User: Fold these one by one.
Assistant:
Number 1:
Amino acid sequence: MEIVQQILFTAALVATAWFITGRVRLIAKAIRLGRAENRFDHADERLKTMLLVAFGQKKMFTNLLVGTMHFVIYAGFIIINIEILEIILDGLLGTHRLFAPLITAVYPVLIDVFEVLAFGVLAVCVVFLCRRFIARVSRLQASRHRELQGWPVSDATIILTAEILLMIAFLTWNASDSVLRDRGVGHYGELQGIVPDFLVSQYLKPLFTGFSDTALVAYERAAWWLHILGILAFAVYVTYSKHLHIALGFPNVYFSDLQPKGEMQNMPEITKEVQLALGLPVTTDPDGGQVNDNGEQPAEIGRFGAKDVEDLKWINLMNAYSCTECGRCTAACPANITGKKLSPRKIMMDTRDRLEDIQKGWKANGPDYKDDKSLLGDYITAEELNACTTCQACVNACPININPLDIILQLRRYRVMEESQAPASWNAMFSNIENNMAPWKFSPSDRFNWADQVNS
Amino acid sequence: MLEKTYTVPTMADMAASGEEPEILFWVGCAGSFDDRYKRVTIAFVRILNHVGIKFAVLGPEEACTGDPARRAGNEFLFQMQAMANIQVLNGYNVKKIVTACPHCFNTLKNEYPELGGTYEVIHHSQFLQGLIDEGRVKVEGGQSFKGRKITFHDSCYLGRANKVYEAPREVLAALDADLVEMKRVRANGLCCGAGGGQYFKEPEPGTKDVNVERVEEALATGADTIAVACPFCMTMMSDGVKNKNREDSVRVYDVSELIAQGQGL
């Protein structure tokens, strides 16, 4: 019997690793569709940002209560994973609580910590479900935000429910195991006197006192399997879900923008044309601009601005995969607050949806397949782009430094420079700047007239 | 009392007499052409005169930085403007620029260096803060603000874009008024609705105008003065106050205008 369980467990582990590897390669390929840009500079500053914003979750604490609750889940996720090591080894070797006899002094303390965290995670997940479905926090409501309709709401519910079930499995597994140990059943009894009751699960023991030994062993095995298979399945699920932030959040913050939020990225290919037009000497771009990691200029100049995902930078695409759809960006967006169609969260979700659709195309029609859709037009509309005030509130709000504004501005550049599709009044503003050196139709020679009034 | 005469030297004047100013005051398009914001330009120039700062303006040689074109997506036009301006600025060997427009400030400071124009760029609120800290500007001799409630509206391109939150507030603190904050301030400040080229077009369809949303928040503080530090915020907030029919009881002023009022300039 033991050996069958070991074989099944090994098979489950190998299958999970196989699935996840496939997903990681696919996602990496999708992210690499983006334009090259060196984000490996300023390692010190990047590391510091990652420690503060990703590991320390600094921006989550803007709201202390929500930040603390999220931190409980985060800490639980990281620390309870230490226990996964023992569970996996037990599964592979057919042992039971492998570490208990080896580290008798700290083992109960460790499990106590895991249990307290597990209970915390469970409680916070319940609160988070209540925030979605009872308190109805506005930024999480599909009725208010069309980008959440359908799958995104289910995704969030599945994640929270799965986490609750996993924590229940973990705690009741410990409780049933404690009862079996007390009763001295089989190998469970061998740990009598070595492993005490645990901090949280001791209170769950009364649930199992009425169970026969056989039923109890059955429950203990079922809970153990449910817990570990649940975790493996969850790990695969995460790669399809908004929950991918638990992995990508860290690199996403590491590679995030370091320049001031107001600074728009220069387009060196245009600098060259402008210098030629003005009869100025063409300078090489001091900061590297579009020069890639190897210091090579791109072979050909693509389009101006972005029409589809491959015109965006790879970090924009990593941003899309890292987005948890929490909607803090959208809740801070002045356009969205006042009822415009623009939602920065939707910009990120559309970018990811576009990437996922391209992946589906690869699977169905071969690895180089490209359909005739594009991010601009088929996913994001001009009305959304035109509503942006570039106020950077979305950039500021994101707990993991995602930049929806950067995508909006690159799409705008395509609309204006490649399609000449600026709103009419913007075209008027352009022509005023061009002809009158001001966005309004005033004569440039009147520019200094204000000085006549300084003494009146 | 002695009648004061304020002067506005241009860079061309300075260059002709072989002089170099301490600062270049970059007036900006709104500061040059917008009737309301011209009063801000004048207030700031009077303060500069009063303190005795050796400054100059470009006058007719100044041109739009290109900011609205760049944000609207017209990178060509932006770079044409930027290159031309940089040629003028570098031609006069400009080192230090002060401007009363956060959009000019952001563009000159963050976006011109890559195109060959590197200067020390300061927003006028920061410059005023420096003068107050050094004791060169004292708020006396004019209108008293004691007991008056003032709220400050953060400009996106000063605040979030460049993390200048304290300077305008410290300038206002010198007025000895009662500074009351809105709910969304500093990094969380709500836009006035003008940025990103919005000022130059009608808003997209929605349920409300952004400036009305912001003005409602400002009015909720009970302040009789909304202080701003940006020409576009100035227009948007003033329009919002009018929209709420409160223009008789609530005024919108730039921080430098309030200092000038306090000094009786």
Note: Confidence is low (pLDDT under 50) at residues 286-296 of chain A.
Number 2:
Amino acid sequence: MGENGSMEAEMHELHSLDSESPEALYAFLAEREWGDGLPVVAPTEARVEAMLGGNAGLGPDEVLAVLPPRGGAATRRAVAVNAVMAGCPPQVFPVVATAVRALGEQRLNLRGVNATTHPVAPLVIVHGDAVADLGFNAEVGAFGPGNRANATVGRAVRLVLLHVAGARPGPGDAATQGQPSKYAYCTAENQAASPWEPYHHSVGVDAPSAVTVHCGENPHNFHDMESDDIGRILDKAASAMATFGVNNACISGGEWFVGLCPEHAATADRAGWGRDDVASYLFAHARRPAREFRRQFDLLAWAPWMNDAADDELLPMTEEVGNIRVFVTGGAGKHSCVIPSWGMTRSVTLPLEP
Amino acid sequence: MTILIQDPAGPLAVGGVQLAPAVPALVSGKIGVLDNGKPNARLLLTKAAEGLATRIGGEVASVIGKSDRSGKSGRGAPGNNAATACESQVLEGLSKEVRIVLTGSAD
């Protein structure tokens, strides 16, 4: 790397194709074991330059992150190539770039994320002004499908993992079964319908817009269509959390993301509950007796205080309330979700780059 | 029409990694076991190490987890989880104590 953290000047490799037809591109990618199995947009120089154009003044060779297991340098250009392939409109490129920076943070533990047999996928959550300004969908169907920004940003992050990180199923990504969110996993916070401050402000990121990356499972839905009692609603969330099938059960440091729909959030607000109250309730109610955990697992990566618990003591599904992270997403209706963690990873929230 | 497309993998951040030279011959010597934190890894690796020791006339001198020298964690604790890296002091200690280390990856 150069003195300013960028790679020494290297020519970015070009490949010649006889045709831009989908068939020719498919064959080219298949030959190199590239791609996610879906059609891609050809990353021609003009398209890549257009993608980079939104980041005037930021060098294309700047390394945003070094991504294991391949040890690929996620230069701004390499990320832009994948954003083109994913179909991103150029205005969302800063979101992809910020998400890639987050993937490079040590606390996220991308090496483990890609090496594990767990199906973990990085979830990208967009916060703040960028949601409306860049065309993200935080309302009905926020997890997809149907919105270009959500779909292509999630897909671009996956393509960066496949190509730059080398996370091919098998040699680079050991997930036993994988999961659908490994194709694309991006949503947005519905701040307009949230009774609380923006999520990124709650974690100390004081910026107009931000991006969070949380490495976890697909969303686990819970619904309550009839309650005006927020406790009764959150009891469903707690029951979805208190399961032994998730890594949070045996790794107490794992986080939970709780995506409340606007109507459930409004019920909490009417009861005078803040985001922290929701998290506290789930910490108190998503519990199982220590005996049951011990019956289920020989290996428990628990906080020491949990190891000391008596068999009858009810233990939480994470070691501290701060690991339960609440945001509002989605539109009309009374479906919310909890998103378990892979476990040995921490979410990262960064200000959106210019 | 011929088109040029850019490479999606991009450059590597570091040069190629050189493997350590192979041990010339497995004749005697101390053998270590580095438990990778997966269920039954310690049992399986230790049995393999004992078998190897019998064949080459060596001994199993150390069986250790990835954070066993930190003094703050035990079997199954986060530092010994398969998803975390081995503490450098464990690797340094093993390199001084034994000639061969058996470890594993994945399940």
Note: Helices of chain B lie at 41-56, 88-97.
Number 3:
Amino acid sequence: MSKKLINRRELIRNAAIGGAALAAPLHFVRDAHAEAYCNMPTGKTVTLGFNVPQSGPYADEGADELRAFKLAVKHLNGEGDGGMLNTFKPSSLKGNGILGKKVVFVTGDTQTKSDAARASAKRMIEKDGVVMISGGSSSGVAIAVQGLCQEAGIIFMAGLTHSNDTTGKDKKRNGFRHFFNAYMSGAALAPVLEKAYGKDRKAYHLTADYTWGWTQEESMKKFTEQIGWKTVKTVRTPVGAGDFSQYITPVLNSGADVLILNHYGKDMINSITQAVQFGLRDKVVNGKKFEIVVPLFSRLMAQGAGDAIKGVYGSTNWNWQLQDAASKAFVKSFGKEYGQPPSMAAQTCYVQTLLYANACEMAGTFSPAGVVKALEGFKFDGLGNGPTEYRAADHQCFKDVLVVRGNEKPKSKFDLLEVVEITPRAKVEYDPKIFGGELGPVNAKPC
Amino acid sequence: MFAKTARGDWLLFAIFTAVVLAAPILFAPIGAGYPDLLQKFAIYGLFAIGFNILFGLTGYLSFGHAAFLGVGSYATVWMFKLLSMNVLPAVVVSVVLAGLFALLIGYVSLRRSGIYFSILTLAFAEMSYKLAYSVLTPITNGETGLQVRNLAKAGVVNFQHGDLRILDRAFGVVEHGVPMSNLFGIKMSGWPGFYFCAAALIIGFFIAMRISRSSFGMMLRAIKSNQNRLNYTGVNTRPYLLAAFVISGMYAGMAGALLAVTDPLAGAERMQWTASGEVVLMTIMGGAGTLLGPVLGASVIKYFENIFSAINENVLHQVFSWLPQGVQDVVVSILSLFVGEGWHLTLGLLFMLIVIFLPGGLMEGLGRIVSLFKRGKAASDAAQNGQEA
């Protein structure tokens, strides 16, 4: 059907062009390998990558995380009032960048999707030459990006990610998490719930259908059943569903008297608002007032949900109304910059950036090998959560957990959560082996 | 642009090959010369080429091609988990599976044509997406995405904690840290990954070119121009359509496999209708029915998604730092609407402009430029001839 019209001369010519084209890029690649570890900073600056959701159901948290990152970079470079740099101890930070190099950053949109998050993280690693990526707001994304950073040989400082898996079965040597997890939420919440609602309760779970939802449901079930509650049913809902009415209607006739919402971000705002609209909180079931529990609570969500959250219990990593010197310093400098108090997502991202910078100073290098060594088992204070430790066995921070309740009479539009109890670290600690997984070796190879 | 002769085809193919292989240098000046984005260019280019075999040649608009992409990705990651981190078995199995899946969906959907066909494919794709997202979570791991894990200790068969990789075990491959996809030891991320994708794209392009020039391709075009006439002349068009559908499904499966090869993770969002819509946009933007168009369209869209979305106000301020402060702020505040989160807006505007002024896509634009050039040359030639005469 086809006549062979390519002659020898053409073939040779084409082959020569093709061969030259093939060989040329390899030349550049080889040059790029002349470094001791991936993206070794050689100039006067060091680049960090902040990968946060700027669209999707967790976009509000992402926006606040980005504000915190920008503030942290400012403080590291010695601009502004220094924030928690002044309260952080033991600190090796000098306010002249990291290891004398000025900190610059690039940002990316995870779209709350693993694929998009990895694409933007890869752009940061391959094009922008970052030595560390931070961010999150979805555990699915955090786990996906953490795996990528481990492969590439750079450090991942997890932002807001609450799934047990991040430092559980999916933990990686190059990844670190400051935020607390679902297990700690369960352990801290259960005694408070017992005091408030009694031992004889029937719980109905609505759960975001991904790693975070799964592990939070598991932990909440475990701890509420320990205090004698029964679990009526657990229902998985898709992330970003928008309308939860089809999931809430069955709750009404299920015989349950507590609804546990394992939702976060806009999902939680929608589901709790709809649950209240359906009259769940005015109902009396089994002779008891129907209650709603939101295990992971943030001020940004409370702001979105409005009156619906009044009196609802939950747990949080940090709250801007804490009265320690560090929290006050952070709130002051954040407020001065942006005219609003920081959320817990902002706090964890700010702290993670500082901790990374400090680890580099301690190690005297940006090499992941040195940073990992400096962070493992690092004990510190003055970053808003009291004495904290980066446990070496699973790269999880251990610190006190706050149990909060939606404020009945808020004094301002930010005064939405009141701290009910500060659960000491000892009560939420666990054996790192219970979740399985392995950290594996540190990856400090050139990329 | 190129004469439709065998010689013209070979020339086109040679130039295409050269451009693809030299992409790391050619795309560096516009900030796209890094492996991940170039991999995406090649992979989505392949996806769009395959889509174009169905849409461009037969005119059947499938709104569910992302389903095959997803099947390819999931199959690849599962092969990584079960057989080996070597990409060859994974790619072969993925393409075959995607083909079988396409056969199934095509057999049902092709009973209808026009908008009904589109809706049927869309329905199938959404069904696959929902299944992957929340029903088949033991196989797909739902929203979290399917990932490879380290080898399980002997006897453990719980995939939450470790993978089997029968072949790797049999050959005694030792893994350090995160398992990496490889081609006989060459890791498939970064530049080697790009060249693997580029090779697939070039082969895919060649096959598409041969199909388009064959009598089979002619038959597909005949279906597009007037299917009734073919039916009246006694030709049964269904087998041709089904073949085209399956071939384009296999292309999509290959693209999905490559996505997982370069980055061993499969997420359900790859099957969402937006992903199906994206390949339609790519094909139309580049030029449906042309050989090069789909690759061009795919590259433009992926470029916008990755580069434009990363530009923020700081970058704009740097670019326009030569303007006086007041003017600079105004310019930056206007332009920042179109970059960063606003990249969809820019893409939408570009798409509208192309559809309105260049219905044949970017290829029509290129064609016009070339013909303008030629006409100018022809005119000056004529003038010279006139003077000589």
Note: The two ends of chain A are 48 Å apart (CA to CA).
